[in-house]
Design a protein that fits this description.
Helix 1 (9-21) runs antiparallel to helix 2. The radius of gyration is 16 Å and the shape is elongated. A two-stranded antiparallel ribbon has the order 1-2. It has two helices and two strands. 44% of the residues lie in helices and 10% in strands. By secondary structure, it is mostly helical. The termini are far apart. It has helices at 9-21, 50-72; strands spanning 2-5, 39-42. The protein has one domain.
């Protein structure tokens, strides 16, 4: 079994979509209650294909981009009614 740790709930949900698109089966409910949604548990029968590892790398890239955007994005400007 592979345990992959996520740093944010948005990253977790994005990774879930990527894994589903790659045909990976996973069980969020199997994760320990206090760790959910920070852990994604993959079943052994869903391990070791290129598409799945590509999905893992895409999830990592998403998380890096998300961190960068949160650090560098200016605050939104609100329109002031006149």
């Amino acid at each position: 079994m592979i345990i992959y740790e996520f740093t944010s709930q948005a990253h977790f949900h994005a990774a879930c979509r990527l894994f589903e698109a790659a045909g990976v089966r996973f069980d969020v409910e199997a994760a320990h209650e206090e760790w959910r949604p920070n852990l994604l548990w993959l079943f052994e029968d869903a391990v070791a294909t290129g598409a799945q590892w590509k999905a893992v790398e895409q999830a990592r890239q998403y998380e890096r981009a998300d961190r960068w955007q949160r650090r560098h994005q200016p605050l939104p400007q609100l329109a002031v009614p006149q």
